[in-house]
Amino acid sequence: MTERRDDAEERQGPVIRDKRRIDPKTGEVRESAKSAPAPPTEKAPSGADGEEVAKVKKELAERTSDLQRLQAEYSNYRKRVDRDRAAVREQALAYVLGELLPVLDDIGRAREHEELTGGFKQIAESLEGIVGKLGLESFGTAGEPFDPNVHEALMHAYSDEVEEPTAVQILQSGYRIGERTLRPARVAVAEPTADLGPQTEPEAKAKAESAADGEKPEAEPDGDDAGDD
């Protein structure tokens, strides 16, 4: 029987089984494909399983919220530490540079009197270069408008040559580091004479000239004293 079956298969040739869902001739879905069982679908949890899933989701949301809050707090902490560190550095630097201002004043006076020579000149220039690299800047120029935020008036007068309160002379340079003023520029201020008004202008001129010459204006007698004379 086996030999007969083998002979029959040899005579018949190879058997080809077509398992395509779509019939290539008609273009329709074959009956065998229609009757094939649908793939299994995931069943939605119900009962106790559904409650457990909801509980896990709630805990996950809480943990995520905690992590985000901790991350935000740590970021704010780092920013605060960096800001405090920069403020401490700026204060320490301002203190050190502030202690050096009298030395810089002496160097400036020596330069004005042409006494800045030799080794002292090299040391002075090195010191000025170092404080300049640290951010120290001098300010104050004769002829600039008077600004009480950066100027300190040590002398006051009236002048026809100015149209607004003006720093006509820099008595001592001001210094700042960044936006911080270490010392205001100490100046002599002149105001327009026209601000006094026409009635008091001559008298104010005389007082201003006396103050400029170092003379103390005479005190005006009171009305009662004049009457007694």
What's the topology here?
Layout: H1 2-12, H2 31-34, H3 48-112, H4 118-133, E1 136-139, E2 144-145, E3 151-159, E4 166-172, E5 174-177, E6 180-183, E7 185-192, H5 201-213, H6 223-228
Parallel strand pairs: 3-7
Antiparallel strand pairs: 1-5, 2-4, 4-7, 5-6
InterPro entries: GrpE (IPR000740), GrpE_CC (IPR013805), GrpE_head (IPR009012)
Biased composition (Acidic residues): 220-229
Biased composition (Basic and acidic residues): 1-33, 52-66, 202-219
Short description:
This protein is α+β, with helices and mostly antiparallel strands. The protein has helices spanning 2-12, 31-34, 48-112, 118-133, 201-213, 223-228, and strands at residues 136-139, 144-145, 151-159, 166-172, 174-177, 180-183, 185-192. Among the domains are: 60-134; 138-218, Nucleotide Exchange Factor Grpe, Chain A, domain 2 (Roll).
CATH class of the domain at 138-218: Mainly Beta
CATH topology of the domain at 138-218: Nucleotide Exchange Factor Grpe, Chain A, domain 2
| Portion in helices | 40-55%
- The CATH homologous superfamily name of the domain at 138-218 equals Head domain of nucleotide exchange factor GrpE
- Give the tally of β-strands: 7
Q: Mind telling me which CATH architecture of the domain at 138-218 this is?
A: Roll
Note the overall shape.
Answer: elongated
Poorly predicted segments: 214-229
Q: Count every helix, treating DSSP H or I runs of 4 or more residues as helices.
A: 6
* Rounded average pLDDT: 78
What percentage of amino acids are in beta strands? 15-25%
Rg measurement, Å: 48 Å
What class do helices, strands and sheet pairing give? Answer: alpha+beta
